[in-house]
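Colleagues,

Please find the record for the two-part complex below.
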Amino acid sequence: MTTKQLKRSDGRKANELRKMTAKVGVVPNADGSAMFSFGDTVAIAAVYGPRQLHPQHLQNPSTGILRCVYDLLSFSVYDRKRPGPSRRSNEISKVTGWALEPAVDLDAFPNTVIDVQIYILQADAGTRTAGINAASMALAHAGIPMRDLVCSVALGKIDKDLIADLTKEEEDFKEGEGATDFAIAKLATCDEFSLLQMDGKIQPEKVKEITKMAEETCKEIYEVQKKALKDVVESDMEEKK
Amino acid sequence: MKNQINEAHEAVENNSNDSSTKRKVVVPGEVIVEGEDFLPGEGTRREGAKIIAGKFGLAEEAGRVVRLIAIFGAFIPRRGNVVIGRVSDITHAGWLVDIDSASQSFLPIEESPRFINRNEMDQYLAIGDVISAKIWTVKGKGIDLTLKGKGLGKLEDGFIFKVIPSRVPRVIGREGSMVNLIKEKTGCNITVGQNGWVWIKGPSIDAQIKARNAVTLVAEKVHVNGLTEKVEHWFAENE
């Protein structure tokens, strides 16, 4: 990697993530819920189910299905986002579902659906990755059988430097080679990627570096997720002592 | 008594109060223990020498067996479970019952303990009535219930509320110890369904509220050791 010190506007190192916060159990009505944030990007996810799936023709008698909805709230961006599904949010709902599917094990719930709803409270780039992180915690919190947690991070390249967790400002970088955005989701403890998306241009050899960087940063995210999940149980235990 | 305790869950409870067992909170995919000596129990799997959690919950090592106790999550119906449900529709062959699970449940007219005239089904169970029933079969398309059995049938008066279904074994306690303690202290009649619905009927409103608070307390503090003593203590404080 480059040896010269890279200057980022918020003073982060190239592979440094924004401050992460995570909280489990933010939606009491849901079977499982979680909040996850990367700096100013805040996502909440709620999980309902397994429950009966309607319309019936979508039911799968051999396994349960996962239904994801992702959207930005109107006030999450500077220009008001018109509420309701859009081309962009439909696409992200789909890829989020694909990113989470390899981690969940729904064979025990035939003909049912697990609804995952992700909303972005505040957007500053990397919303789909924050959403996936929140959703994976919410699924665990809902007691769904899972192989693993899913960790997700947006990596990228501005001009010639690889950086982790881009902000909106960095995503809009125009000079030199411009900005490239790489959204990645990975199963936490095994060597499997469940989401790889790219927007921009990049040299093939740099993609290898990106995946290596993803492994390192996902470890950090995993720790944050793990801590948040354990806290929701252990905070009660402490209280009792 | 009105209380039916599912045998499988009773067995779970027998071990979980044992002080020699070790417990810790695990997330899905986390390695619980490593070593060829251990056996993967419910909710866990083996990968090489590692025992890995398949759910979020409390991992428990009881001797060589490693088991995972779920503390969150929806009700998964099993044959023999006693559940509390509400009649949602009447068909020509029986009643549709809402038991708060993913699949429809149906109570056939033949499964009521006495003969019922098909024209007068609503006199036995009307829409909105609450019943405690046993799960007879779980099939792909739905669940069949039965009312034949001790303590099953229509629940009159009283009220129902919900706790997290995976915590029901703890609310019942070892051989019903916890629920019997609450019954004894409040003088209420309590039925706990495996689907997380709890029915309470007592001599006075105060006693009913107290029983409800006690059940909610147990469901919240499900992972605390020596919970029975704590509940006794709670009753002493709230005399």
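Chain A touches chain B through 37 residues (CB under 8 Å).

Comments are welcome before we finalize the supplementary table.
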